[in-house]
C-alpha cells in the first residue's frame, strides 16, 4: 500500500497570493495551496498542489495554477472546496511564464518559453488559440512573460522579453496592435474601464540612461504610448518593477518594485499613484524590523480587495549579504489610512536536510536556520544561518551542521547546553555536501570531494581520503549503518565503504552491467542468503577507486539496510550524453558480503533520484527524485511498488522514523510526514 500524507511541516516557498474574498487570502507556495485569514492569522490547508503561478477568478469560483512537478501542467481548482476541476497540458515541457483566467472564467491563457500564448477552454480542455510571438537570437526570445485580459474579456494583452506589448483579439487570435516599450514589461494591468494598459518595466541590470522610466501607459484602442510618469525627486525607485494593480474604482494604481544594494531606506517598496495626474499619493515602506539586514527586496505581486479597502503585497527578500538566505512575506495594507494591517512571514525557501532525535523531535536544516520541531508541530530556531546539512548523534547529545557556504563551514552544536563550537578546522574551501554521525555518537563524518572522519572533542581528523584518490571523486554523500559502517557515493559512479575500528575500506563501482557481478532472483530470495563473507584479502582487491572514461550513472545518495548487510544506492542521470540514455529511475542494491548487485527500476522516465531511505523493518525502500516524486520499492523482492507526487520541487532528503513514518524534505520549502 502506498503511503498517504499525514501532515506537512512548513508552508513552503511562497510563489503568489490572491484575495478569495474581502477577508481571506489564497496563498500559493511550491508545496501546497493555503488559506490565510489576516484577522486571526490562521493558515489552513486548501489543496495539496504546489504552485508556481496563480490566477484567481472569484466570480467564476475558480483558481488556475501552473505546476512544475512532476511535470509542467496547468490545473484549475474550485475556490469552494479546493477540488481539482481539470488538468491541462502545459507548453510541451517549456517553462510556463504567465497565466490568466478570463473574466467569465471559461478560458485560461498561458504564456511559455516556447514563445506561445495558448488559450484553452477549461470545460473541455480544448486549445482554442495558439498565438506565436516573434522570436530573436535565442529560442526563448520573444516569449510572453506577462498577460492580462481586458475587463470584458474580448481582448488579451501580452508582454514579451523583446520589449513588445501585443494586444490580441481573444475570439480570432488576430493581432490588434503591437507597441514597442522602452524596456521589457514584467507585469500588465488593464484599467477598470478598459481604456488603458499599464505596463511596469524592468531594466534588467547594467547601466541605463533613463532610470526614471518605470511605467508605460498604452492606449488600449490604438496602442499609442500615452504617458510615462516623470519623476524628479529622491523618493522614486530606479530599480526594476515587478507588480502593478489598479484599485477597483480606477482612481489609484499601485506599483511594486525592487531595491538592491546600496540599501536606500528612504525608498518605498510600494508606490500608490493617482491615475488622474499620475502623481504619487503614498509610498509604503518595507517592514522596518527587517530593514537592517535586507540586501534585496522585491514586491512580486499586488492586488486590491474587491471593495478596494485593502491592498495585498507579496514580497521576496534576499538577506545576509548574498549568503543565499531568502525571506518571503505577505503584507496587507489598509487602503484608507495606509497602515500595515497584517503580515504573514512564516515561509521557508528550502528545507535542505532533516535529522531525527531520540525523543521524536525533528531537526530541519533550512535557509532560515536549524529548526527543532516537536510532536505538536511547533518549532523553535536553535541555530541561525543558512543551514545546508545536519546530522544528530544517536544518543541525542550533539549535532553536526554544515552551512550553505563555499568556505567549507561546519560546526558542532551541543543540544544540552546550546553551545556551538568554533568552525571545524581543516575542512575544504567548498560546499559541504554531507554530514553523518556514527552509531557510537563519538565520531562523525564531514565530506565534500574529500571526506573527514572526526571525533567529538578532537581538533584533527581521524581519517581522510587518501591524497591519491581525492582527485577522482566528486560530490560525495555519506551514509552510516547501525553496526558502524560508513559509505560514500560519488557522481563518477563509485562508492566506498569504511568499516571496523581502523576503518579499512572497500570500493565498488556501478558503471557497466558487464563490469559488475549480477545477482539473480534466487540470490535475494528470503529468508536466508547462502553467502560467505569475504576475507580481508578479498576486501583488499577492491581497495582502489574504479573510474571509467565512458558513460556511467551518477550516484547521489545511499542508505544501509537495518542490519547493515546491504547498501541501497540512489542513481541520477548519466555522466555523458554520448550514448543512448535510459531515463528510468534506478536503485542499486549492493550486498557487501559478496559484492552482488541488483537493480530496482521504475516504469516511468525522468525519475533521477536525489535521496533514499530504508524502512526500520527492512521491507521498504523510498527514493526521492528531483521532480518531487517519492518512489517506493519492496526491498525483499526488488520490486517497484508505486510512486507519490509528494512535493513541488526536488526531494532533498528522506528518513524513516522508528514507528515507520516517512519524513521527506524538499526544495519547495516544506516537509511531508507520510504514513502507511
Describe the structure.
A hairpin with a 5-residue loop joins β14 (144-149) and β15 (155-160). With 676 residues, this protein is mainly beta. The model is unreliable at 206-211, 231-237, 261-266, 288-294 and 504-551 (pLDDT under 50).
What percent strand? Answer: over 45%
**Cα separation of the termini:** 7 Å
Average predicted confidence as pLDDT:
83
> Helical segment tally?
1
Q: What is the helix content?
A: under 10%
For the largest beta-sheet, the strand count, sense and barrel status come to: 8 strands, antiparallel
Q: Uncertain spans, ≥5 residues at pLDDT below 50? A: 206-211, 231-237, 261-266, 288-294, 504-551
Class of secondary structure makeup:
mainly beta
Shape: elongated
Output the radius of gyration: 27 Å
Tell how many strands the DSSP assignment holds: 55
Question: Features of this protein?
Answer:
Methylamine Dehydrogenase, Chain H, 1% helix, single chain, 1 helix, 676 residues, mainly beta
Topology:
Blueprint: E1 4-9, E2 14-19, E3 25-29, E4 33-36, E5 43-47, E6 53-57, E7 62-67, E8 73-78, E9 84-89, E10 96-101, E11 107-112, E12 116-121, E13 127-132, E14 144-149, E15 155-160, E16 164-169, E17 175-180, E18 184-190, E19 196-202, E20 215-219, E21 225-227, E22 241-246, E23 252-259, E24 270-274, E25 279-284, E26 294-304, E27 310-319, E28 325-334, E29 340-344, E30 351-356, E31 362-366, E32 369-373, E33 379-383, E34 387-392, E35 398-403, E36 410-414, E37 434-437, E38 443-447, E39 451-455, E40 461-464, E41 477-480, E42 486-489, E43 494-499, E44 504-509, H1 536-540, E45 553-560, E46 566-574, E47 584-591, E48 596-605, E49 609-614, E50 620-625, E51 629-634, E52 639-645, E53 651-656, E54 662-666, E55 671-675
Antiparallel strand pairs: 1-55, 2-3, 3-4, 4-5, 6-7, 7-8, 8-9, 10-11, 11-12, 12-13, 14-15, 15-16, 16-17, 18-19, 19-20, 20-21, 22-23, 23-24, 23-26, 24-25, 26-27, 27-28, 28-29, 30-31, 31-32, 32-33, 34-35, 35-36, 37-38, 38-39, 39-40, 41-42, 42-43, 43-44, 45-46, 46-47, 47-48, 49-50, 50-51, 51-52, ...
Amino acid at each position: 500500500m502506498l503511503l498517504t500524507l499525514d501532515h506537512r511541516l512548513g508552508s513552503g516557498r511562497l510563489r503568489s497570493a490572491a484575495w478569495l474574498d474581502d477577508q481571506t487570502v489564497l496563498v500559493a507556495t511550491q508545496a501546497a495551496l493555503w488559506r490565510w485569514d489576516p484577522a486571526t492569522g490562521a493558515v489552513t490547508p486548501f489543496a495539496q498542489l504546489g504552485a508556481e503561478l496563480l490566477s484567481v477568478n472569484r466570480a467564476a469560483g475558480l483558481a488556475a495554477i501552473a505546476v512544475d512537478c512532476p511535470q509542467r501542467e496547468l490545473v484549475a481548482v474550485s475556490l469552494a472546496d479546493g477540488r481539482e476541476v481539470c488538468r491541462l497540458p502545459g507548453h510541451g515541457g517549456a517553462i510556463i511564464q504567465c497565466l490568466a483566467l478570463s473574466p467569465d472564467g471559461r478560458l485560461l491563457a498561458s504564456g511559455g518559453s516556447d514563445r506561445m500564448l495558448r488559450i484553452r477552454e477549461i470545460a473541455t480542455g480544448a486549445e482554442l488559440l495558439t498565438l506565436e510571438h516573434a522570436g530573436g537570437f535565442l529560442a526563448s526570445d520573444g516569449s510572453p512573460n506577462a498577460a492580462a485580459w481586458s475587463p470584458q474579456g474580448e481582448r488579451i494583452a501580452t508582454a514579451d522579453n523583446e520589449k513588445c506589448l501585443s494586444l490580441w483579439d481573444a475570439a480570432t487570435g488576430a493581432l490588434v496592435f503591437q507597441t514597442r516599450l522602452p524596456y521589457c514589461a514584467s507585469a500588465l494591468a488593464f484599467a477598470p474601464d478598459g481604456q488603458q494598459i499599464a505596463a511596469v518595466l524592468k531594466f534588467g541590470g547594467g547601466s541605463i540612461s533613463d532610470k526614471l522610466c518605470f511605467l508605460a501607459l498604452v492606449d488600449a484602442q490604438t496602442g499609442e504610448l500615452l504617458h510615462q510618469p516623470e519623476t524628479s525627486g529622491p523618493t522614486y525607485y530606479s530599480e526594476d518593477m515587478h507588480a502593478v494593480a489598479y484599485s477597483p474604482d480606477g482612481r489609484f494604481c499601485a506599483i511594486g518594485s525592487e531595491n538592491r544594494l546600496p540599501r536606500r531606506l528612504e525608498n518605498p517598496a510600494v508606490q500608490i499613484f493617482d491615475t488622474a495626474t499620475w502623481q504619487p499619493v503614498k509610498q509604503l515602506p518595507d517592514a522596518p524590523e527587517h530593514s537592517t539586514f535586507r540586501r534585496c527586496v522585491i514586491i512580486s505581486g499586488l492586488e486590491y480587495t474587491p471593495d478596494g479597502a485593502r491592498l495585498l503585497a507579496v514580497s521576496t527578500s534576499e538577506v545576509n549579504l548574498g549568503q543565499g538566505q531568502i525571506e518571503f512575506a505577505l503584507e496587507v495594507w489598509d487602503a484608507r489610512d495606509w497602515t500595515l494591517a497584517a503580515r504573514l512571514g512564516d515561509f521557508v525557501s528550502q528545507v535542505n536536510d532533516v535529522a531525527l532525535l531520540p525523543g521524536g523531535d525533528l531537526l530541519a536544516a533550512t535557509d532560515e536556520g536549524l529548526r527543532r520541531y516537536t510532536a505538536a508541530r511547533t518549532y523553535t530556531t536553535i541555530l541561525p544561518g543558512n543551514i545546508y546539512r545536519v546530522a544528530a548523534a544517536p544518543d541525542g547529545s550533539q549535532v553536526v551542521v554544515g552551512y550553505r557556504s563555499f568556505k567549507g563551514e561546519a560546526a558542532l552544536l551541543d543540544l544540552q547546553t546550546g553551545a556551538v563550537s568554533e568552525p571545524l578546522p581543516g575542512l575544504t574551501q567548498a560546499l559541504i555536501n554531507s554530514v553523518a554521525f556514527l552509531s557510537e555518537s563519538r565520531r562523525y563524518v564531514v565530506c565534500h570531494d574529500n571526506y573527514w572522519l572526526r571525533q567529538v572533542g578532537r581538533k584533527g581528523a581521524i581519517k581522510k581520503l587518501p591524497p591519491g584518490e581525492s582527485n577522482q571523486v566528486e560530490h560525495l554523500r555519506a551514509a552510516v549503518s547501525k553496526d558502524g559502517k560508513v559509505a560514500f557515493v560519488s557522481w563518477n559512479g563509485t562508492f566506498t565503504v569504511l568499516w571496523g575500528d581502523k576503518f579499512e575500506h572497500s570500493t565498488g563501482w556501478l558503471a557497466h552491467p558487464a563490469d559488475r557481478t549480477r545477482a539473480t532472483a534466487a540470490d535475494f530470495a528470503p529468508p536466508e542468503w547462502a553467502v560467505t563473507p569475504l576475507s580481508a584479502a578479498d576486501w583488499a582487491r577492491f581497495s582502489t577507486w574504479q573510474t571509467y572514461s565512458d558513460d556511467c550513472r551518477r550516484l547521489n545518495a545511499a542508505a544501509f539496510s537495518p542490519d547493515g548487510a546491504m547498501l541501497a544506492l540512489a542513481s541520477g542521470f548519466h555522466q555523458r550524453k554520448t550514448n543512448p540514455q535510459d531515463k528510468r529511475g534506478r536503485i542499486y542494491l549492493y550486498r557487501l558480503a559478496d559484492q552482488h548487485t541488483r537493480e530496482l527500476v521504475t516504469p516511468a522516465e525522468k525519475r533521477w533520484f536525489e535521496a533514499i531511505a530504508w524502512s526500520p523493518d527492512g521491507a521498504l525502500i523510498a527514493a526521492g527524485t528531483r521532480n518531487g516524486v517519492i518512489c517506493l520499492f519492496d526491498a525483499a523482492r526488488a520490486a517497484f511498488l508505486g510512486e507519490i507526487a509528494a512535493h513541488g520541487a526536488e526531494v532533498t532528503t528522506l528518513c524513516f522514523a522508528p514507528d515507520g513514518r516517512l519524513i521527506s524534505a524538499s526544495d519547495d520549502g516544506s516537509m511531508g510526514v507520510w504514513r502507511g
